[in-house]
Specification:
single chain; about 450 residues; alpha+beta; Beta-Lactamase; five-stranded antiparallel β-sheet; 14 helices; 15 strands; about 45% helix; disordered C terminus
């Protein structure tokens, strides 16, 4: 042929397998040539090592959890692993004859494991051009008709051709969508809270806030969107705090409350007469969640109730003193009247006629009734503290006392529809005689 040719082969020499390189070269005379064989142990060793590495590399690719397919420079499938067969839903027997990439695409289209393309022939031509245009790794997402999403990556192979990677990222994308949705829901929820919310990162810079915080502390949105440090925010809200000589120390303590990572809560009384409840909660990522609640109205109502309670206690004390004085002022003349009436009734100073005895008896009865009423006042004053403070039961106590004095009865009826009713029964008595000046004289 007029050119020099070389080939390498293994032969058995003296019972040992050796590797020889055979070379044939043409001579000057036509149809004449000369040949020789050279033992090349170094080349044999290199080829053996290369074969071992290729075999080991193939075993590693087969054991990977990622689907892999290798196409040679001739566009034929040279290698695939089990995951590729499972992911692409292809029978292994259909891949044993090393199909071309165009044949592989047709097979995948029949199995409906390729995205739906409007111009499929153009897509096949584009895939064929990858063998001469891809110089570095490229990635894309493939959305299959069955709802799955595959991440495909292709890169040049060192022996020529292309190396394809396929990975099912459906669950990962679904989880990412769920996570993003959850984050957005949380953001919208926090933005619409009535509490002022601020989230600080681990370095103390503001990373999230809601409009209520801006309104509560009169901070500009542009200032908050710049993600200021907590020290800058405290300095911007200095007008709400009492201006003292130790402001820097107080500022340092406020910064530590947010950055030291410990939970705390408390109440702030601001110079604008508003009151805020705050809470600092450390976050797992090293940040801090701070919330503010305006409790000015609640504190105002609480203070009003406390003042009213003090007024009620003072009124109760005045009532107790009044009852005590009333009991004393009532009992003193009653005792005098009772003593003189008893003296007259005993007729130690003289005999009484029937009319006089009737009058004295009436006075004795009336003085006893007033004495018993004074006893009721003392019972109310020194009795149950709940009765003395609330007044509950006082009407019932006085009613029963009056009924007992007049020898009457009390009936209480409970009705599910009409409620509870009390009925008092008094005996009918004759009209009392009207005392005249003449009768008194008698």
């Amino acid at each position: 042929m007029g050119i020099e040719l070389s080939e390498t082969h293994h032969i058995v020499h003296e019972g040992r397998l050796i590797f020889l390189e055979f070379t044939e070269a043409p001579l000057a005379e036509p149809n004449d040539c000369v040949g020789h064989a050279v033992h090349v142990p170094a080349l044999e060793h290199v080829q053996s090592e290369l074969s071992s590495h290729i075999s080991a590399h193939g075993e590693v690719l087969k054991s990977l959890a990622t689907a892999i397919a290798i196409f040679g420079p001739d566009r034929r499938l040279k290698f695939f692993n089990v995951v590729f067969v499972q992911l692409r839903c292809i029978k292994p027997d259909s891949l044993r004859n090393e199909p071309l990439i165009n044949e592989m695409l047709e097979l995948l289209r029949e199995r409906r494991v390729l995205p739906e393309y409007v111009d499929f022939p153009a897509f096949k031509q584009e895939q064929d051009r990858l063998f001469v245009s891809v110089l570095e790794r490229q990635e894309e997402l493939m959305h299959l008709p069955d709802g799955r999403t595959l991440r495909r990556a292709e890169l040049p192979h060192h022996f020529g051709g292309l190396l394809f990677f396929f990975e099912d990222v459906t669950d990962r994308l679904a989880m990412k969508r769920s996570y993003n949705t959850l984050i957005e829901v949380q953001r919208e929820t926090i933005k619409n809270l009535h509490e002022g919310v601020a989230i600080f990162a681990q370095d103390g810079r503001l990373c999230f806030w809601n409009p209520t915080l801006s309104e509560m502390w009169t901070l500009e949105r542009e200032f908050l969107e710049a993600e200021p440090h907590v020290s800058n925010i405290i300095e911007a809200t200095r007008e709400f705090f009492l201006d003292t000589d130790d402001w820097q120390d107080r500022k340092r303590r406020l910064v530590l409350q947010i950055t030291e990572g410990s939970a705390r809560n408390g109440r702030l009384d601001r110079l604008d007469q508003s009151v805020l409840d705050y809470a600092c909660v450390p976050l797992p990522d090293g940040g801090c969640f701070v919330s503010y609640v305006d409790v000015t109205n609640t504190v105002g109502v609480q203070r009003a109730l406390e003042e009213r309670n003090i007024a009620l206690e003072m009124a109760d004390q005045v009532k107790t003193e009044l009852i005590a004085n009333l009991s004393y002022e009532l009992r003193t003349p009653l005792n005098t009247i009772a003593r003189f009436t008893d003296l007259l009734d005993s007729e130690l100073l003289g005999t009484l006629n029937p009319r006089q005895r009737e009058y004295v008896s009436g006075i004795v009865t009336a003085s006893r009734q007033l004495t018993e009423l004074a006893d009721v006042y003392e019972t109310f004053q020194h009795g149950d503290p709940c009765v003395r403070k609330t007044g509950s039961g006082l009407g019932l106590v006085l009613t029963r006392s009056l009924l007992e004095l007049h020898r009457s009865s009390l009936e209480i009826r409970n009705d599910a529809e009409r409620g509870t009713h009390a009925f008092a029964y008094f005996p009918i008595a004759e009209p009392a005689p009207i005392a005249t000046k003449a009768r008194v004289t008698e």
